[in-house]
Specification:
By secondary structure, the chain is mainly alpha-helical. 76% of the residues lie in helices and 4% in strands. It is built from eleven helices and two strands, in the order ααααααααααββα. Helix 2 packs across helix 3, helix 5 packs antiparallel against helix 6 and helix 6 runs antiparallel to helix 7. The longest helix has 60 residues. The radius of gyration is 27 Å and the shape is flat.
C-alpha cells in the first residue's frame, strides 16, 4: 500500500512537470494555487509587487493613468490579478478616483491603500507605488523563506514515515519466518516480539526527532514573521510621514501592527527620526524554558 501511494505521488509530480511545458501551464499553476493557499498568497503578493513597480515606472514617465492600466494586464501571469487590474480600469473609465478604484479592487492591503491615498494627496503617486513594490518584494522573499523552512522538515517527516512503514512491512514477515525457524529449532518464540518492539522503538525515536526539528523550524519562522511585521510597519511609517516612529505603540495605533504580546517580546530602540530603529524579537516561552 505504501509503495502504491509513493508511486501515485511520483506519477502526479511527473504529469505536472510535463504539463508545465505545454499550453496547459496556466491551468496547472492555477490548480496549484487553489490547492495550496500559501502558494496562492505568495502569487498574489508577487502580482501586487509587479503592478506597483510597473505602475510607478509608467506614472513617472508621464503615461496617462488609463493607458497605464490598459497595458498592465499584459505583464501579469496571474489571471486573478489581471482581472482586478481590468476592474480598476473600468472604475476609472466610469469616473472613479484613482485611490478609490484601487481600494475597491482589493489588489493591495488596507495599509497600502492608505499609503496610496496619502501619495495621491501629496502628488507623489509614482514614489508611493515604488515603495509599495519594494515592501511587497520583501514580503514575497520572506514568505518563500518561511515556506521552504516549513516544507523541508515536513518532507523529511513524511519520508521517515514512508521508510518506517516500508521497514515494518519487510521486517514483520521476516520476523514471522525467523520465529518459525527458531521454534522448529527449539528456541524461544518471544524473540520475535522483541525484534518487532525494537524496530517500532527506532521508528518512534526517529519520528520524535523529526517532529522536534519541525517544531523548532516553525518557531523560528514565527519569530522571523513578527520581526518582519515590525520592520515593514516602521518602513511604511517612514515612507508616509518621512520619519521613523519613536515606539511600538505608535505603530500599533496608526499602522495596524499586531502580534501576540504574551508570547513575543519586541525590543525597539529608536535612534533618530531618519535612522532605522534596532529591532529584535524574542519568544517569551522559548526564553523562559
Amino acid at each position: 500500500v505504501v509503495l502504491a501511494i509513493v508511486a501515485v505521488v511520483v506519477l502526479a509530480v511527473v504529469v505536472c512537470a510535463l504539463l508545465m511545458k505545454t499550453s496547459a501551464k496556466d491551468k496547472v499553476l492555477a490548480l496549484v494555487r487553489r490547492l495550496f493557499p500559501p502558494v496562492r498568497s505568495l502569487s498574489m503578493k508577487l502580482a501586487s509587487s509587479r503592478v506597483a513597480s510597473v505602475l510607478s515606472m509608467m506614472l513617472h514617465s508621464g503615461f496617462p493613468t488609463g493607458e497605464a492600466f490598459r497595458l498592465l494586464p499584459s505583464v501579469l501571469s496571474d489571471g486573478e490579478a489581471a482581472d482586478k487590474v481590468q476592474g480598476i480600469r473600468k472604475d476609472l473609465d466610469n469616473g472613479a478616483a484613482f485611490a478609490d478604484a484601487i481600494s475597491n479592487s482589493k489588489l493591495f492591503d488596507g495599509l497600502h491603500d492608505r499609503m496610496i491615498r496619502m501619495g495621491v494627496a501629496a502628488g507623489r503617486e509614482d514614489q508611493v507605488m515604488a515603495k509599495i513594490a519594494d515592501l511587497y518584494e520583501e514580503q514575497v522573499e520572506d514568505g518563500i523563506s518561511r515556506l521552504v523552512a516549513i516544507i523541508e522538515p515536513t518532507l523529511i517527516a513524511l519520508l521517515a514515515v514512508v521508510i518506517g512503514a516500508v521497514l515494518l512491512s519487510v521486517m514483520l514477515p521476516m520476523a514471522g519466518i525467523l520465529s518459525r525457524v527458531k521454534e522448529a529449532m527449539g528456541l524461544l518464540a518471544y524473540k520475535r516480539e522483541i525484534a518487532i518492539v525494537l524496530v517500532m522503538l527506532l521508528v518512534l525515536v526517529g519520528a520524535w526527532l523529526l517532529i522536534s526539528r519541525l517544531g523548532n523550524k516553525s518557531g523560528e519562522a514565527q519569530t522571523q514573521f513578527v520581526t518582519d511585521a515590525v520592520h515593514n510597519a516602521a518602513l511604511t511609517c517612514y515612507a508616509v510621514e518621512g520619519a521613523y516612529p519613536t515606539d511600538l505603540d505608535y505603530l500599533r495605533t496608526h499602522y495596524g501592527l499586531a502580534y501576540d504580546q504574551s508570547r513575543y517580546f519586541v525590543r525597539y530602540d529608536a535612534f533618530g527620526s531618519n535612522l532605522m530603529p534596532d529591532i529584535s524579537v524574542t519568544e517569551v516561552e522559548a526564553s523562559g524554558s
